[in-house]
Amino acid sequence: MGVTEKLAAFVVDTDYESVPEEAVTAAKRAVLDTLAVTIAGCREDASRIIAAYVRELGAAGDAGVVGTGLRTAPPEAALANGTFAHALDYDDVNISMRGHPSAPLLPAVLALGEKTGASAREAIVAFVLGFEVECKVGAAMGGSHYAHGWHPTATLGSLGAAAASAKLLGLDTAATRAALGIASSLAGGTRQNFGTMTKPLHAGVAASNGVRAAMLAHKGFTADADIIEAPLGFLHMFARPDDYDAGKAVASLGQPFDIVRPGIGVKLYPCCYATHRALDAALALRRERGIEPQRIARVTVKVSRGTAMPLIHSRPQTGLEGKFSMEYCLAASLLDGRVSLASFSDQAVQRPQAQDLLRRVDMEEEAESQGEGPILGPATVTVILDDGSEHSQRVDIPKGDPRAPLTWEELAAKYRDCAAGILSHQAIGRSLEIIASLEAAPDIRELMAQVCPMASRQGLS
Fold first, then answer.
1. What's the rounded Cα separation, in Å, for the pair 319 and 311?
2. Which of 57, 61, 85, 161 has its CA at 20 to 30 Å from residue 315's CA atom?
C-alpha cells in the first residue's frame, strides 16, 4: 500500500471512538483559538475585500461567513473564513508542518459541517484527521520546502482541508485519494507575499481548495491515485529529492496524533511566531529591569539558525510588514511594554519613535542550529543603554508553546478579547459554552449561528 493510499485509508477508517480523549481536547482548544482570531480578523482590510468578493459571487447560502450575516457556498465560505483566520497572523502553529495548521483547516470543517449537518463529533474527527494529514506530510517534507519559498500553510493546508472535507462527505478510500490528488494540483503559495494581504489569502485558498477538491471527488472527478509519493507528485514537486522521506508521512499515523504531540503553539502576539521568544525576552527585560526606551542605545537579538527566513521586512512601513519584522516587533515591545493588535496599524509602525528604534535593532542567527529553524530554538535579547550597561534575557520556550500551554481560561480570555465589539456579550458566552463541551453538541450549526451575527453584515459590504 502506497503513501497516498495509506493516508486515505486512515482518514476513512478512523472514527470518533478511535480518537483519544487528549486529541479531542486539543481539537476543542484549537477550535476556540482559531474561531477567536477568525472573528477578530473579519474587520481587517483584506477580510472586507474578500467578504465583498464572496458576496458578489451570489452563490447559494449553505455556509456562514464568521462575523457577518453572509451565507454562501461552502468553497466560498471556506475562502472567506480562512482568510479571516490568518488576517492578523494571530493563529496557531505546528513544528511538523512549519506553518499554521488550523487556519486552512477549521474553515473547511465549518463550511461542509454546516452544509451536511454533520454532528459535532464528526466535525471533531474531521478536524483531527485533517490536522494529521497536513502535519505528517509536513514532517516528511524536510526543510527545503519552506527554505525554497513555499508557504506550508497554503500547500500542506490544502491537503489537510481536503482530508477533513473528504471525511465529512463520507468519501471512500478511492475518492479520498482523488480529493488529495485534486488538492495537490490546486496547492501553492509563495513566502514572498508575507507582509501583504496575500499571505492570509493563502489560508483561505487552501481551505477552499480542500472543500472544492472533496466535493469534486464526491461527484466522481479523478486525479492521480498516488499523488503524494508519485515521481511527479506532491513531495517531489514541493521538496528536494534528497530532503524528503515519503515514509515519514505514514510511519506513525495516530501514534500519536500530531495535534497531541508535538502539538499546537498558540500565539500571545498577533505577529510571526519567529518573533515570539524574542518578544517574551524583551518584555521581561522592560518589565523586570525597568528599561526606559529613551535610554536604549542598541538592541541585539541572537536567534537560532533559520529564524530570519520568514522575517523579510527589516524596515517595515505598514502594519502587515511589521508582523514580519523582528526589528519592529522588538522596538514596539520596548517602547510600549506590550504587543497587541494595536501594535500593527500602519500608524503604529510609521511613528518616528518606532522607526528610530527599529534601526538600532540587530538580529544575528547562531552559526549552529539551536533547534529547528523559526519555531524551535532560543532567543537572547540584549539591550545596551546609553551608559554602556547591558541587560540580557534568554527565552527557550515561549508562553503558548505546547510545553508551556495556555490554560482554558487564558484561551477563553483571548477569545473574549478578539470577539469584543463584534459579537454580542450573549453570543460570546454561548459560543464559549458550546465549544467547551463541543463533543456533546448535536451539530455545529448553533455554534455557527452564534459567530455569524446578522447585525454585523453591513460593516463588511
1. 14
2. 85
Whether the full predicted model's pTM is greater than 0.90, yes or no, is yes
Chain-centre distance for alpha carbon 197: 15
Query: How would you label 283-297 residue by residue, b for 16+ Cβ within 10 Å and e otherwise?
Result: bebbeeeebeeeebe
Q: Which residue has the cell 490546486?
A: 186
Q: Are 380 and 302 in contact (CB under 8 A)?
A: yes
| Residue 85 CB-half CA count within 13 A | 36
The cell 537572547 sits on which residue? 380
CA separation, residue 410 to residues 32, 268, 436 (Å): 11, 10, 13
Same domain, residue pair 55 and 193: yes
Residues 6+ apart with CB under 8 A from 17: none
What CATH number is associated with residue 212? Answer: 1.10.4100.10
Residue 35 near residue 7 (C-beta atoms within 8 A): no
pLDDT band at 69 (very low <50, low <70, confident <90, very high): confident
pLDDT of residue 130: 99
